[in-house]
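Async update (no meeting this week)

Hi team, since we skipped the sync, here's where things stand on the single-chain job. The sequence we agreed to prioritize is pasted below, unchanged from the tracker. I ran it this morning and attached the output directly underneath so nobody has to dig for it. Comments welcome in thread, and please keep replies under the output.
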Amino acid sequence: MSHDARLAAIVGDLPGPYPPHDPLDAVVVHGGRARTSGQLPRDRVGALVRPGTLGSSLTTPEGAEAARWCALNALSVLRAQLGSLDRIERVLTVIGFVASAPGYAEQPQVVDGASRLLHEVFGTAGRHTRSAIGVAALPRGAAVEIEVEVALG
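Output:
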């Protein structure tokens, strides 16, 4: 099954794409790789999913849900740039930023929401390296922001 078909079977329609403001690009393709700008957890109408701070106003499962939406938005901008997710040979790296209250230490479990989705869509080619970083705040009050880098076939 193609990556596009598997994604459609898992989630149906993608949100967005929601490009960043000028002079930024949503995706840069260079040297057989594509890298996204940071993607926020926006739903199909552009509203933020689960805004807030982990360990304060949000639970870890709510943060993982937000991270999954971030990954969906990353796939949306990748597909818009590449024409098809089938051009992706492998997910290389995910960098996740998690708005965290002092003492909150479950950033990896939050970013797992994005990692699991990428594995569902790409199978073993969705396995990747990753960083999960706690930060004081994110743009627009988002709980999570994700960047994704892929290898192109």
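Quick observations from my side:
The chain has a mean pLDDT of 97.
The chain has three helices and five strands.
Reply here if anything looks off.
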